[in-house]
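Instructor's aside before we start: the two examples that follow are unrelated to each other. I chose them only because their records fit on one page, so don't look for a connection. First example below.
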Amino acid sequence: MRALIRAGSASYFLIGLATVIFGALLPEILHYYGQSYSGGGELVFAQFAGFLVGVLTSPVSAERLGYRGALFLSVISFSTAQFVLALRPSWHLIVLLAAVNGFGFGMTQTVVGTLILESTERAKAVAMSRLEVFFGLGALLMPVVASLLIAIGAWNVSFAILGFGALSLLVMWGRRPWENAQTATVMPVKGSSRPQAGTAAGGDRRGAVLLLALFIGLILMYVGVETSIINFLPSLLIRHIHLRSSVASLSVTAFWGAMTVGRIFAGAIAEKLYYSRYLLWSNVGALAVLAGIALTGNVWGVFLLVLLLGVMMSGMFSISLVFANHVVAGTAKKTTSILIASGGIGGSLFPLLMGWSMDRLAAQGTIWILAMFTFLMLLLLVAIARISRLRGKKAIPQTE
């Protein structure tokens, strides 16, 4: 199963690169094509609309083509989009290619994530956090590469680099021996005896449906907020504290660097604590940091807060997925697909709001909007934790 983990980690690394590339390059792209921030919102919307389609069609694609075929389809779509984007085509074609790009990494993330969740018997939070570490490494590296390429006036080469990376990933999956994912088992982490996802759902069906609805809202808003941050943070800081474009793009590197470090420990911490307790404290911290960014005008202070924001948000997505699979009745494939799809909706709609806000409000106003949604996430988490407790203590992992 080590081959599965290696291939999955490489896939998440590439997805991390792809997720932040438009955010790192957005000021340059908008300047080159003479577009406003609303145009940038449309670009990110197209990418995550494609992402949503990729997520929703992945179960059908996996059923008809098999996991291998679905991955090949997604990676080929992704690589093709990247190579054409590198040619700097017309604006309308770029928007279309952004959708194809999103389709590719959306299907890849869903298929690989489902493989890992179905193949891991125990310590799912640790397994998913390990994948998320590689996602963070990709998201950390891309802004650095983009900043260097922006400095020499070759920002479009960033897309070509991703295209070649996708082809390398295609070769990696092609060489991997495929077995039945349903029977494959990843060895549990030593010392872990957490129950399998879904086995502790219990309770009535109505409660499970309500919990799923709350998780959908939580993931939708989380991915929307995260997507807005990684795509608009450089632009926000250019307007908020007047940074140069090449320096502002490094804010995404700082954010993802902190996210990556946080994810190294997130799974283990969440396994020791209640999942709900970990998520609640992470959300409170993120809310406080966003408020701090809105109120701070010092460059170093803002970058420090960006680092703290990355730490606070580092494990929220993966632990939310694991928590949902633990307390909501149903298979990992069904629950994971629904929640990732809800994230795609948030990731596509929120950038439209951010683009509108950037054109009409001060940078601080846009940051306060993000803080408002983070507060709504906190309310959803409180409701999820309360309902989980009412449905029985087994609905939440216990410390040993």
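Example two begins here.
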Amino acid sequence: MVNDNYQILTILIFLPLAAIVPVMLLRGREGLCKWLACSVSSIELALAGWLFCLAPVLPSASVPPPGYFIRQDFPWIERFGIRYSLGADGISVLLVLLTAFIMCIAVLISRKAVTKHVAAYHALLLAITGGVMGVFLSLDLFLFYLFWEVMLIPMLLLIGIWGRGKPVYSALKFFVYTMAGSLLMLLAIIGVYLIHGNQTGHYTFSLLELLGTTIDQSAALWLFGAFLLAFAIKVPLFPLHTWMPDAYADAPPAGSLILAALLAKTGAYGLIRFAYPLFPTAAALLSPVIFALAAAGILYGSWVAYAQHDMKRLVAYSSFGHMGFIVLGIAAWTPLSLSGSVLQMVNHGITTGGLFVLLGMLEERADTTAIDAFGGLWGSIPNFSAFFLLFALASAGLPGLNNFVGEFLLLAGVFRVSPWMAVLAFAGIVPVLIYLLRMVQKVIFTQARTPLGLRDVSLREGLVLSACAILIVALGVYPVPLLDLVRAPVQLISGGPGGLP
């Protein structure tokens, strides 16, 4: 059964990349261009859904190593030990499904928002889709790095060409930060490659073979530090976040959505899949530092978010703080905290992504996202306001909605390792409630100074927002299928069962 289905991994990566050429050939025919991009993203979502359905069916024991229920592996550049190696376990399947869902939304919300260089814009969305899929499915470090870089240039152009405010400045700042981290990670990948080759006589970039490499503690600290820096910039982790508010605020609506819902998750995924497993001793030594930085990010993000007068910047700092919770769970490195972190990666992508979609709609209608520019929206656009209230409450961690489950699990896992750190992180939830409810109160319920005459959500927008809303409620009430899917992988990579019953 595995051999009959492994091609799905390649299709998920290369279908959107292959669609770039016909999309670019449709320049001047905007309707067809949008239709093709929408069709490809819909097919990606269907394939990701199929992969999600296959996960409980295909036995992981039949595909070595345990945990990966579907793999594709064959030689690529044999002289240097580079293989075309892809694999999916429960963690990567959830993130692949999140990617397909978010990119489908990104295409849909761009149908009216983008009016210039339409073909190039959708080609960049497709390139980002292929790159992110490759990051979540690669089991060869060279291949992983290749797809890691594929994400960078399209995102740079998306912000720089279609952004608002100071798009070129924000795009270059994003590029410089991420490229600096990427180059250090490349040096670390080469270092691991050479150390393993010198020890065994077999030079390879295969993650599964490199996991057993014995590395001197001093060298491991430097190599882990390089991986950590690259992934921490992408998350972002305090104090490497200064590119984030500008990029999130100045990017077009789809760009803000992708940055928060997907690209931040590639950094967290890199920590789980590569950094911690490759350098477990160094990770254990530096975990107190990572704990401290994650907690500082939670508190700092909440404090700065409260001071913002622009909703996109407020949600950007809110996202920064929520990603601190995810890194905190990873740093604890227990099955329970990792399960919570992976679940929260999905939840955060849906909730914060939904907020950025809503803010993009406001920006399209009013040409601003300043908090003081709005008020009384519940009376003028009630459907929009209802979605806004739901997503804000979910982001605040209201019980019964999706963010609550992920945060509860990861904090419970952190408490087992460091009770004081868990208490400190929990204290960071209180400011989140304050600034989110303050934003909701001012935008939805306070009487507007000047009536704006905004239109309520359209049918297309309503379908997009309803899909997010259904997932927010469903995952808040019944997250069991997702937790069952990640149970085996997190137990394997963390080295013990002590997680969910």
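The two ends are 29 Å apart (CA to CA).
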